[in-house]
């Protein structure tokens, strides 16, 4: 049985118009990502990786080209349908966490379920609790965001991305604000989630983090420069060892 | 429906989590509403008090006096002074007037056992007390007999008693008015401030005959004739009748103008009505300004709070909230804060009025329409300025909202 196509882009372009000047952020990207993949997207700043991720995350629409997410042709959707797609099919993780302040971990994780209109989840509290346990924060359910460390905050954000059982998890520099040790923990968590079958696409500019993924796409000037399978993937142990060696 | 319920929960959570901000927002509304209620009510209260005092004088009162005109900045008497002849004429022939009293005012120095004071002394007849319905606390009024024989007796008010007698019982004691001793026979019940703010207890009343003979030298004219009509319904009849009688005695030909004036209590009420109307407009203007200031306060904090929360809005949009979810949430928040603030503001206004009453003894009934205006305006401003910035934020591209600093 062929694997399900989670992401399929055909000649996706994104052009920003700034007065007279046109900026081609993403140009003619063809990409196919199947269920269970773990993809790292790398590239220098300005290479268009964030713009591309925003398109994948249905936060932005391509100027031209087609994007199919989990079989849905995203181009034709209106604002509300896009919101629902984000809610049902995508878990987004941000560099700056974007959690609600003065709010407990469990309430933050429940948030996507508040906007669920399918009614497919019965007990949002229980689901949020499960998601937090999955990221190793089972003992921090009722801690408020100001009582948690950076690594823990990002785990809360990951739990929030997991709670709606999305087809795709997108991470935009999830480790960007974390120290090396916490970064490795988060990357290891991604591996663990991927092993359980989650499809993950993450942007990073740290090669040692990208090395945890199965596949690496390198963007330059909005085009795919390389797209290859990672041969010797890092594990938590190997990464920690490398960390000690460089220290 | 389920979604709406969830949004309500989110909105109330947001209010609770940001207690300080919520309280500040409400504070702006509370003060705005309270200020409006208190200013409008104070205006209403003052108006009502003035009107009450005027009607307290008895609405069947007529005042007859010589016509005066402004000439070169001074009041100039235009006709014959009102005098004994006029008085007796009215007394004898009037059908609609039941009681009459001349009024002669003389300014003199009054010396009591424990103090002295320069004061206007009113010379009146025994019927004056009935006409103005002034009650006695102790002693008795002077009588017709006292007036006829021009006895040196007087009736005094509380302020005079306090200043000239201190704690002494004034009845039977003497006040020297321009060196002439007057025996105090009556002590009036306290009346308080009059319609124009004058102290109605700062008063010495003596027979007009005594005043005319002893104090102002021999004087035939009266300053005013006070009269009261049989009943309130016949006050206009009384006025017409008195006018005719006086025209006759003054030998005014047909077509000529009166050389006297008659003012009724009702007319006086109308005049003060105009004055208090102006007062109300003035206070209304002040209230509008406080409303405006309160409104701008509410607007500011609403704008700041929504702007501050743009990132939060971005996050909610990114994880799948619809534009309408965000809007509904912020609308619920704005409505809740505005209504709660409005209610507390009404309480503040009502309690404030009561506190003013306790401190100054100036009773302010809280005007219902001031509550409606204050509450309505605050609710409108709060909701409008909670809603529109939120609408703007909800319409943002989620990416831009997320990047908002």
TrEMBL record, chain A:
Ranges where the ABC transporter domain occurs: 7-246
Keywords of this entry: ATP-binding, Nucleotide-binding, Translocase, Transport
SMART domains for this protein: AAA
Protein source organism: Lutibacter flavus
GO cellular component: membrane protein complex
Gene3D superfamilies: P-loop containing nucleotide triphosphate hydrolases
Family membership noted in the UniProt record: Belongs to the ABC transporter superfamily. Macrolide exporter (TC 3.A.1.122) family.
Protein name (database record): Putative ABC transport system ATP-binding protein
Entries under InterPro entries matching the protein: AAA+_ATPase, ABC_transporter-like_ATP-bd, ABC_transporter-like_CS, MacB-like_ATP-bd, P-loop_NTPase
Pfam family, one: ABC_tran
UniProt GO MF annotations: ATP binding; ATP hydrolysis activity; transmembrane transporter activity
Automatic annotation (TrEMBL), chain B:
GO molecular function: transmembrane transporter activity
A single Gene Ontology CC term: plasma membrane
MacB-like periplasmic core domain: residues covered: 22-243
Domain ABC3 transporter permease C-terminal: residue ranges: 285-398
Residues that span the membrane, as ranges: 21-43, 278-305, 326-351, 363-388
Keyword Cell membrane attached: yes
Compartment annotation: Cell membrane
Keywords: Cell membrane, Membrane, Transmembrane, Transmembrane helix
Mode of membrane association: Multi-pass membrane protein
Source organism superkingdom: Bacteria
UniProt record similarity statement: Belongs to the ABC-4 integral membrane protein family.
Name of the featured protein: Putative ABC transport system permease protein
């Amino acid at each position: 049985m062929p694997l399900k196509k989670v992401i399929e882009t055909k000649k996706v372009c994104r052009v920003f118009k700034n007065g007279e000047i046109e900026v081609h952020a993403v140009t003619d990207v063809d990409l196919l990502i199947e269920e269970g993949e773990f993809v790292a997207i790398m590239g220098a700043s300005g290479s268009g990786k964030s713009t591309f991720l925003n398109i994948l995350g249905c936060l932005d629409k391509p100027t031209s080209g087609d994007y199919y997410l989990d079989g849905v042709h995203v181009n034709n959707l209106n604002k509300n349908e896009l919101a629902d797609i984000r809610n049902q099919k995508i878990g987004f993780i941000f560099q700056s966490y974007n959690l609600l302040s003065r709010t407990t971990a469990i309430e933050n994780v429940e948030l996507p379920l508040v906007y669920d209109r399918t009614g497919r989840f019965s007990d949002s509290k229980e689901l949020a609790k499960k998601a937090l346990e999955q990221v190793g924060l089972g003992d921090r359910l009722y801690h408020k965001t100001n009582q948690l460390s950076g690594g823990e905050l990002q785990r809360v954000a990951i739990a929030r991305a997991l709670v709606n059982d999305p087809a795709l998890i997108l991470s935009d520099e999830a480790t960007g604000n974390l120290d090396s040790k916490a970064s490795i923990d988060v990357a290891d968590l991604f591996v663990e989630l991927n092993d359980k079958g989650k499809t993950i696409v993450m942007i990073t500019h740290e090669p040692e983090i990208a090395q945890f993924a199965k596949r690496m796409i390198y963007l330059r000037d909005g085009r795919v420069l390389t797209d290859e399978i990672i041969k010797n993937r890092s594990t938590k142990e190997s990464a920690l060892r490398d960390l000690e060696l460089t220290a | 429906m389920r979604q709406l319920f969830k949004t309500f929960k989110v909105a109330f959570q947001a209010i609770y989590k940001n207690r300080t901000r919520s309280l500040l927002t409400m504070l702006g509304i509370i003060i705005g509403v309270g200020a409006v209620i208190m200013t409008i009510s104070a205006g209403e209260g003052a108006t009502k008090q003035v009107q009450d005092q005027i009607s307290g004088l008895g609405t069947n009162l007529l005042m007859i006096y010589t016509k005066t005109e402004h000439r070169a900045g001074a009041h100039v008497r235009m006709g014959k002074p009102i005098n004994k002849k006029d008085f007796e004429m009215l007394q004898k022939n009037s059908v609609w007037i039941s009681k009459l009293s001349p009024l002669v005012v003389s300014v003199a120095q009054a010396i009591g056992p424990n103090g002295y004071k320069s004061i206007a002394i009113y010379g009146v007849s025994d019927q004056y007390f009935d006409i103005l319905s002034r009650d006695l606390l102790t002693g008795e009024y002077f009588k017709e007999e006292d007036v006829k024989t021009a006895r040196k007796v007087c009736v005094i008010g509380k302020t005079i008693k306090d200043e000239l007698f201190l704690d002494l019982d004034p009845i039977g004691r003497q006040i020297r008015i321009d060196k002439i001793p007057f025996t105090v026979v009556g002590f009036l019940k306290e009346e308080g401030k009059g319609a124009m703010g004058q102290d109605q207890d700062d008063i010495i009343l003596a027979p007009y005959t005594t005043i005319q003979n002893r104090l102002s030298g021999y004087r035939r004219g009266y300053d005013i004739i006070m009269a009261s009509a049989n009943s309130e319904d016949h006050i206009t009849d009384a006025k017409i009748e008195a006018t005719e009688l006086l025209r006759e005695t003054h030998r005014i030909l047909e077509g000529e103008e009166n050389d006297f004036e008659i003012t009724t209590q009702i007319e006086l009420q109308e005049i003060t009505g105009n004055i208090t109307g102006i007062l109300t407009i003035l206070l209304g203007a002040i209230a509008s300004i406080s409303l405006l200031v309160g409104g701008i306060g509410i607007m500011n904090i609403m704008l700041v709070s929504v702007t501050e929360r743009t990132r939060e809005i971005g996050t909610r949009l990114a994880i799948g909230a619809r534009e309408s979810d965000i809007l509904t949430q912020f609308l619920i928040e704005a409505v809740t804060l505005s209504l709660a603030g409005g209610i507390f503001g009404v309480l503040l206004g009502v309690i404030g009025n009561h506190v003013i009453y306790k401190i100054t003894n100036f009773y302010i009934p809280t005007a219902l329409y001031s509550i409606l205006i204050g509450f309505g305006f605050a609710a409108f401003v709060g909701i409008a300025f909670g809603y529109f910035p939120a609408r703007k934020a909800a319409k943002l591209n989620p990416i831009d909202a997320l990047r908002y600093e």
